[in-house]
Prior knowledge:
Elements: H1 2-12, H2 25-41, H3 47-55, H4 77-87, H5 99-109, H6 126-141, H7 143-176, H8 185-188
Amino acid sequence: MAIALAAPAHAQQAPPSAPADSPRADQGQAAPQKQADGQALHLPVSLDKIKEALQNAPSTPLLKIDERPTFRVQIRERQKIEALLSTLHFKNEPTPAGGIYMQEQQRLMFNPVDNPLVQPYAAFNQGELLTILIENLVGKYLAGKATDAISKAERARAEAQAKDEVRSAVAEYCNAQPNAGIGLQICSSLGR
């Protein structure tokens, strides 16, 4: 580990400079310059190309001042909730009284063959069940139409009665006026 750490540290240290009067002084300066020239040749980018690109910069700026920014908003929470809810499965059938476990327990405890009177609709015979069915169908499909017809008839009768009350009130007013309200527009609308 000491060897691995020593090599990079040694590479970063500056080479010792030789005294000026020594014969190696000329060689010491030439070696670093050759080394620097050698490193310049192996760079991944060219400084000359960078200088040319900077000198040939476009005269117009990339962003114009009069351009208006475009903002967009997208809400994704709703999509996440819908995706989560689509994975859930809810049973659409009605839950029996006491819950599904109570129904299953009753089915196991009271076999329909051995205990027919303990079944859910055992209190009704077939005729009574048919009567309940017909009453429900009539109530669902015919009661709404009958109620609408009755309410329309009551409304028409109430409107006719209100019109008669207004006519009688106007007639009383016109009779109380001098000359029986001749010349008044409301009295002339009675059609005497």
